[in-house]
């Protein structure tokens, strides 16, 4: 299984790193391939090796900390990736209602336009909670899971419910992580 990421995502995160003024700090910490991608970002529709994204985000964490990574992820998803997925998400909300469980059970469908080679398993634990397990074909860094945590928080926002998203419980091999999500009933 090949793990790939749409360059649209890379570009959205890069834009947020530039916006907060951390680009020079990040560029000073990344590998040559990542630096090339930062200086000349691939077209938004291109599929890329996620290692450049991971390297960029690990450099951001080293420069500014995990809290900044979380904020960049949230802002990048809101302003970039999510905007492109809204037609899909909006359609699901109209068809199936605004329950977070509805959207969370369909994460694989609305992730297809932005990632390949990632497996998702949603398990409902109660009417207002569940867990999403994300599996990769290789070890991924913590910052990758942070992006998913931010995305799950945005799902709660889209459904207009208050809730909580846990930090990912990452397997020892780094190839999978489970994120718990809970919300208050409407």
Plain-language structure description:
- This protein is of the alpha+beta class and 186 residues long.
- The protein has one domain (4-183): H-NOX domain (Alpha-Beta Complex).
- 53% of the residues lie in helices and 19% in strands.
- It contains eight helices and eight strands; from the N terminus they run βαααβααααβββαβββ.
- It has helices spanning 7-19, 23-27, 32-39, 51-64, 66-96, 100-104, 107-111, 142-158, and strands at 4-6, 47-48, 115-116, 119-126, 129-135, 163-165, 169-170, 176-183.
- The strands form two sheets. Strands 4, 5, 6, 7 and 8 form a five-stranded antiparallel sheet that branches. Strands 2-1-3 form a three-stranded antiparallel sheet.
- The longest helix has 31 residues, at 66-96.
- It is globular, with a radius of gyration of 16 Å.
- The model has no long low-confidence stretch (mean pLDDT 90).
Topology summary:
Blueprint: E1 4-6, H1 7-19, H2 23-27, H3 32-39, E2 47-48, H4 51-64, H5 66-96, H6 100-104, H7 107-111, E3 115-116, E4 119-126, E5 129-135, H8 142-158, E6 163-165, E7 169-170, E8 176-183
Helix pairs in contact: 1-4, 1-5, 3-4, 4-5, 5-8
Give, in order, the helices and strands.
EHHHEHHHHEEEHEEE
**Strand composition percent:** 15-25%
* Approximate helicity band: 40-55%
CATH homologous superfamily descriptor = H-NOX domain
Tell me the radius of gyration: 16 Å
Query: What is the CATH domain class?
Result: Alpha Beta
Named CATH architecture: Alpha-Beta Complex
* Number of β-strand runs: 8
What's the CATH topology label?
Answer: H-NOX domain
By secondary-structure content and strand pairing, the structural class works out as alpha+beta
Low-confidence stretches: none
Which outline best applies? Answer: globular
Total domains, how many?
1
End-to-end Cα distance: 40 Å
Mean pLDDT: 90
């Amino acid at each position: 299984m090949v793990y790939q990421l749409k360059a649209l995502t890379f570009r959205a995160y890069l834009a947020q790193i530039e916006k907060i003024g951390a680009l020079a700090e990040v560029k000073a910490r990344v590998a040559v391939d990542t630096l090339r991608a930062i200086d000349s970002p691939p077209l938004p529709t291109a599929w890329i090796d996620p290692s450049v994204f991971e390297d960029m985000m690990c450099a951001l964490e080293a420069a500014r900390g995990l809290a900044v990574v979380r904020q960049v992820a949230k802002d990048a998803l809101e302003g970039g990736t999510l905007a492109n997925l809204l037609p899909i998400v909006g359609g699901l909300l109209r068809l199936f209602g605004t329950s977070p469980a509805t959207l969370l059970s369909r994460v694989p469908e609305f992730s297809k336009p932005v990632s390949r080679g990632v497996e998702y398993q949603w398990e409902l634990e109660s009417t207002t909670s569940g867990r999403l397990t994300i599996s990769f074909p290789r070890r991924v860094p913590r910052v990758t899971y942070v992006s998913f945590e931010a995305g799950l928080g945005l799902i709660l926002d889209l459904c207009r419910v208050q809730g909580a998203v846990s930090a990912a419980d990452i397997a020892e091999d780094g190839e999978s992580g489970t994120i718990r999500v809970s919300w208050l009933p409407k």
